[in-house]
């Protein structure tokens, strides 16, 4: 089987996994619903109990899971390529901390307690963090090391700000802790619609930057020799990471390890060509997030474990494996 045929096979398998994850997300939970009833509820919406559960509760969280999974996975692809750090995830630019700082500001300063409000403040916070990192690296030179150091500094500074606000305001802490674990429950179709433009814009930037990221992996001089404008490629990749991470964190909270694990899995299946890595990651990311959400719903009925907790439990051993397998962490 040729390389292209093998890669197309991977795409088809990833599509099948994503379809299976979507179906499981609609059918499974504290009250399992037969697949036939799920399809009837989607088609007819007759107002029965199953239709109410599927259309009112599970469809919205499935839509948000699709967006969040794709966004975090693509943000991880962009971050790992941009920093040439195989262990980078969306936190490396401080974008997650920026989104979290935006949410805390919304709660502590403006008294906002709705998830809809969190989305917009989280996006603004993520964008501000991205601009801060770019401004700092602009003075010192946009190298992978400088980007990583600036991101770490912004992440630490915003983290200190967040915990300072939480320490002096008990009400803010109570509101924040429910958002901070990372979950899909309680999300609405309106929230999914609000973050969709940002996810689509980030996806477009990631696709545009994909060929340039392949050239950057060979070094800046080689990339320039191949005709790529290194600064523009980096700016597009950083913009994609900011938009995708900001949107995902704002709507679902910080869900860990998706941005780290999915790019490595995609790279292992289709090679280092970022066009194929992006295509596979945008399918496997949502499949992973939806699978984690389903597991969280069914292991402790009638309650549920937040999605971010499940991905963290799975991701921690994966991180250990990646660290000990040199080949696996070669970006």
From TrEMBL:
GO molecular function: transmembrane transporter activity
Subcellular location: Cell membrane
Record's GO cellular component terms: plasma membrane
Membrane-protein topology: Multi-pass membrane protein
Top-rank lineage group of the source organism: Bacteria
Chain ranges passing through the membrane: 63-83, 92-112, 118-136, 148-168, 195-214, 235-262, 274-295, 307-326
Keyword terms, alphabetized: Cell membrane, Membrane, Transmembrane, Transmembrane helix, Transport
InterPro entries referenced in this protein's UniProt entry, alphabetically: ABC_BtuC-like, ABC_transptr_permease_BtuC
GO BP of this protein: siderophore-iron import into cell
Keyword Coiled coil: no
CDD domains: TM_ABC_iron-siderophores_like
Main location: membrane
Pfam families: FecCD
Entry's family note: Belongs to the binding-protein-dependent transport system permease family. FecCD subfamily.
PANTHER family assigned: FE(3+) DICITRATE TRANSPORT SYSTEM PERMEASE PROTEIN FECC-RELATED, FERRIC ENTEROBACTIN TRANSPORT SYSTEM PERMEASE PROTEIN
Name of the protein: Iron ABC transporter permease
Record lineage: Bacteria, Bacillati, Actinomycetota, Actinomycetes, Micromonosporales
